């Protein structure tokens, strides 16, 4: 019975992924979001009930897209034999590199979804679930680092670190959106420098990295 339930969950997730793909294709083909679930379902040979089996609204579907980006990134990383042996700094670097590779594979949709509402914060509503996931992932990293420190005095604040990683992600996301370099090489450099800065800040040796990051950002801005 447990196996049957598990297979049912896998099938439901697979079907939900198909619906996500249909939605993303619709947005890119029509250059707009669907006006109603009824019309969207009808145009794609399904019923409203078919849609509601997986998502309660378009907003829920849009949040799920970012969930899938995160899940796909974690799956790719965890398949690597080396990932488990990485230091936390290397793990965060790997996460950002992998996540932005996933975003790049879906760049047209991501740019549309984030630019749809201009500078309005409404466009960030779809990132609410992703924020929880990234902050949770960051907490596991700092928890591992804290466990290595015998004295509580030298342990770092998990909440501050996890929120810092989220803010760092938002910075990198905006950087990637504006990046015109070949193969988004500048984004890769920004990832490396920003991750090194964050960890050095928590290791109390920030000055050199902060200056290095500042020089890079100034160069990019003036280019």
Automatic annotation (TrEMBL):
Taxonomy, superkingdom: Bacteria
Keyword field: DNA-binding
Sequence ranges assigned to domain Tetracyclin repressor-like C-terminal in this UniProt record: 91-217
GO molecular function, one term: DNA binding
Organism: Christiangramia echinicola
Name of this protein: DNA-binding transcriptional regulator, AcrR family
Gene3D superfamilies documented for this protein: Tetracycline Repressor, domain 2
Pfam families recorded: TetR_C_23
Keyword Cytoplasm belongs to the record: no
């Amino acid at each position: 019975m447990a196996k049957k339930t598990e297979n049912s969950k896998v099938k439901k997730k697979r079907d939900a992924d198909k619906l996500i793909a249909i939605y993303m294709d619709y947005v890119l083909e029509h250059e707009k979001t669907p006006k109603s679930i009824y019309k969207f379902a009808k145009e794609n040979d399904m019923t409203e009930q078919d849609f509601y089996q997986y998502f309660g609204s378009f907003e829920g579907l849009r949040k799920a897209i970012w969930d899938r980006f995160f899940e796909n990134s974690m799956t790719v990383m965890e398949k690597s034999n080396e990932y488990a042996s990485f230091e936390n700094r290397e793990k965060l670097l790997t996460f950002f590199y992998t996540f932005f590779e996933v975003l790049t594979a879906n760049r047209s949709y991501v740019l549309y979804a984030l630019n749809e509402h201009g500078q309005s914060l409404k466009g960030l509503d779809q990132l609410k679930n992703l924020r929880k996931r990234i902050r949770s992932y960051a907490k596991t990293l700092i928890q591992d680092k804290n466990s290595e420190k015998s004295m509580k005095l030298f342990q770092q604040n998990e909440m501050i670190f996890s929120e810092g990683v989220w803010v760092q992600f938002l910075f990198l996301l905006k950087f990637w959106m504006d990046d015109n370099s070949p193969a988004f090489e500048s984004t890769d450099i920004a990832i490396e420098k920003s991750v090194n800065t964050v960890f050095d800040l928590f290791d109390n040796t920030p000055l050199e990295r902060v200056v290095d990051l500042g020089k890079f950002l100034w160069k990019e801005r003036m280019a």
